[in-house]
Amino acid sequence: MAVRLFEDKDHAAKYLKYRVTPNEVVSEIMGLLKKRMPLPGKLAVDVGCGSGQGTVLLAPYFTQVIGTDISPAQLENAQVNQKCDNVSYRQCPAEELPLESGSVDLVTSMTAAHWFDRPRFLEEAGRVLRGGGCLVLLSYAMDMYLEYGDVTEKLKQVCKEVRTVLHTCI
């Protein structure tokens, strides 16, 4: 269903024009990631990249960045409007990433994970991430929960703790 909403070229152009670019959030995430691994890292993947505004923000921190999306129109906008030498784009579903197992340092999804089959996406992210790699999901809403096998309750607790901390900061 999600592909239908974003396959029209006019819609993709408006998405590029009006979507909020998460500059400060990505900078903060990279600061935290730098404490866990040496940067620049080898490979980051931005899943559901849309028109690539968030994808290119990862470019200074990784040797290679790949943006993936299911929509050809979104990827066309990304390729035309978000150029960086170390960034490329691939069309694929979030649950079927065309990457080797254990090859990715960072998997991000910037305001797109709500479209995914979350259990399948989390399994796929776990497959492509290397040991010590990191998964970062950004969302417009704070009421998101994750479900994944036998760690579902732990993931729900982490989401709840994050919301609690954010509410005390506002």
TrEMBL record:
Q: Which organism is it from?
A: Periophthalmus magnuspinnatus
* GO molecular function terms attached to this record: S-adenosylmethionine-dependent methyltransferase activity
Q: What is this protein called?
A: Methyltransferase type 11 domain-containing protein
User: Which residue intervals define the domain Methyltransferase type in the entry?
Assistant: 45-136
Note the Pfam families from the entry.
Methyltransf_11 (PF08241)
InterPro entries registered for this protein in UniProt:
Diverse_substrate_MTase, Methyltransf_11, SAM-dependent_MTases_sf
